[in-house]
Each structure stands twice: as C-alpha cells, then as structure tokens.
Inverse folding.
C-alpha cells in the first residue's frame, strides 16, 4: 500500500490488515522497520501461582532434583521450570483465543453477518 516514493523511502515497510475488533472495519497496521527487538524480562514470582497445585509439585520436583546443588542452582531450576510451565499454559490459551477470534472474524465477514453465531 503505497506509491513508488513511499516504497523507496521505506523498503522494509509493510501494512497488514488486522482482525475485526469492535468495529465493522479492518484496521491497518504500518511497520516501517524490519527489526523486531524483544527484551528478556526479569523473572518475578507471582503469588497466585502458589494456589496452583501443579506449580507446587513442579517447584518441589525442581528443588529436590539434585541434593548437591547450591541454593542458587535450585532457585534457577525452579525459575526455569515455572517459566517453561507458564509458556505452555500461555500457548494453550493462545490457541483457544485464536480459535475464537477466527470464528468471530468468519461470522463478521460473511455477506450478511451471522448473528446467531455471534449470539447477539
């Protein structure tokens, strides 16, 4: 989406269509830089995780995996286990969200919007 001058000025530029969300129009997102920087964040333990029995078992298993490890090594093992568990849970949630978003987009994109599937 652009003329020759725009393409020359922004050779890595792209404009994908976004999903329908809160409107009957599809918004455009413009990217001008191809570099995507992702910063590694600091691990912070969420107290709400203590209520999840799966996390409790995970921490116990990580902590007791090696009796000869230092406390720092045990904490790092617990941190890695929790991060991996959280990634897996996030992936599962993302699959469900994506499935629901696709169903919503199909309903909104049909020639007459499918109001029954939208539950309006």
């Amino acid at each position: 989406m652009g003329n020759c001058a725009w393409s020359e000025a922004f050779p890595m530029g792209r404009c994908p269509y976004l999903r329908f969300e809160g409107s009957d129009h599809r918004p455009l997102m413009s990217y001008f830089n191809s570099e995507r920087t992702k910063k590694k964040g600091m691990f912070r333990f969420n107290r709400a995780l203590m209520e999840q029995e799966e996390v409790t078992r995970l921490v116990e298993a990580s902590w007791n995996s090696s009796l000869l490890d230092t406390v720092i090594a045990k904490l790092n093992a617990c941190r890695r286990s929790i991060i991996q568990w959280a990634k897996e849970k996030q992936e599962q949630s993302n699959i469900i969200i994506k499935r629901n978003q696709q169903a919503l987009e199909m309903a909104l994109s049909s020639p007459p919007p499918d109001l029954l599937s939208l539950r309006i």
